[in-house]
Amino acid sequence: MARRAGVAPPLCLLFCLPFFCPPRPAAARPPAPHLVLVLADDLGWGDVGWHGSAIRTPRLDALGAGGVRLERYYTQPLCTPSRSQLLSGRYQIHTGLQHQIIWPCQPSCVPLDEKLLPELLQEAGYVTHMVGKWHLGMYRKECLPTRRGFDTYFGYLLGSEDYYSHDRCVLIKAKNVTRCALDLRDGEEVATGFKNAYSTNLFTDRAIDLIANHKTEKPLFLYLAFQSVHEPLEVPEEYMKPYASIKDVKRRRYAGMVTLMDEAVGNLTDALKRYGLWDNTVLVFSTDNGGQTMAGGNNWPLRGRKWTLWEGGVRGVGFVASPLLKQKGVESHELIHISDWLPTLVHLAGGHTNGTKPLDGFDVWKVISEGRRSPRVELLHNIDPLFVDDFPCLGIDNRTSLPQSKSSPWDDTLFNISMHAAIRRGKWKLLTGYPGCSHWFPPPSLFNESKIQSSDPPTKRLWLFDIVHDPEEKNDLSEKYPHVVEKLLSRLQYYYKRSVPVFYPDEDPHCDPAATGAWGPWA
User: Fold this and answer.
1) 461 with 417: CB under 8 angstroms?
2) How far is CA 22 from the centre of its chain?
3) 190-217, pLDDT tens digit by residue?
4) Which residues are registered as beta bridge partners of 223?
5) Are strands 167-172 and 177-182 parallel, antiparallel or unpaired?
6) Model pTM?
7) Number of Cβ within a 10 Å radius of residue 380
8) 3-class secondary structure, 72
9) What is the C-alpha separation between 222 and 395, in angstroms, rounded?
10) What is the pLDDT of residues 251-269, one digit of tens each?
11) Pairing of the two strands 428-432 and 420-425
12) Contact assessment for residue 116 and residue 370, using Cβ atoms and an 8 Å cutoff
């Protein structure tokens, strides 16, 4: 029966009016996840079990299989550039670090006006720890990890050293003297007393201590940057025994190093579970660049190696493992780059990227966790106007840089194609100049030959590949698709115009650690 006019509404309706009802409390935000970022050094595409390697990596295989394997994931071809883009979220053309790495005596570091990932996570309420290799400059104290956002640091500042003594020997050219000194720090103090402690075990033990002592009222950010598997090729003898059948001594030793690192990552994840952190942890595993084929590494079937812009130098081994993933046990073939971790992890942390310079990275969490399309459609691999390959190929392609030639149908009106550069857009990849050693390197003993040589003429300076269908970079399509070449050359010029000058200072002999016996800040 219809309600007559003037009759009071039922009491329940009164209490549903906003005037009478207090607002519902907003749904509580889930606690911020613990973030664990594990970076391997020089681990190649062909050095893990899930890519068909003979090297045993059961813990990495299992973590990746239970999470999301990133099969179209890119790094930079060298240590410093990858680490700078990881922690800044910005291409190296924007930080002046386009050329090579930061060498021990160079007065250089990631620019101090760049706001780095750990600083942003500190602002979001995280406790931030770093263990392992820094390699982002240390000539001034302001460059050290503890001045760039890490609450604690234990590790080494330069690019490589002895795994047991933790010494690094460097030729100081201005003095014509080779100086060997300790490179190990606890915070900002020199760390002594760790001689004969193998670095992978030493760093893992420190990381596990941090996990065990973490007060869970604050979320944890742990950046574990292994020395493994960068040369020198050193590993306890028992890890080489399973690989006695590998005749190549470098590959055999390297295989043992990979397996020990695999075990270390397993021990780390076991600790996260044992101390109750795993259920709310996102673990990212990544290499920093392709494998160095001269030091046991392998990127088969990809072309090239570390130092090069071929896929073997820049396509990275990586995965995400976490109970928080909405999809698990899958492969992602979406385009993801090492610069994407900063916005992705800061977003996961509930933080913001205010205060950073314009980012080149994208938030790709939904790409990884839910299988969505990547917001990244383009990727600048690098533009380095000074490129020289310090480790040229042996054989027909023994260049270190590009001879000047005008034999190409492409003139330099759109972009100087003698310049070492590469860009990816959609399925297309364009390379110019001399990209670095262009051979394919099969795993030792897979074939009789140690390399499959490129048939490219020495004066060639432009390539176009459909990298989705031709990841091995065998079929140059530049003559077939000139309009694509023109588009990508114009994009390279766009980036080049917006790049900052290369910062690659001369060595400073004041770096000499003779007085202190340890590498460290000198300016």
Assistant:
1) yes
2) 49
3) 999 999 999 999 999 999 999 999 997 8
4) 37, 130
5) antiparallel
6) 0.93
7) 23
8) coil
9) 44
10) 999 999 999 999 999 999 9
11) antiparallel
12) no
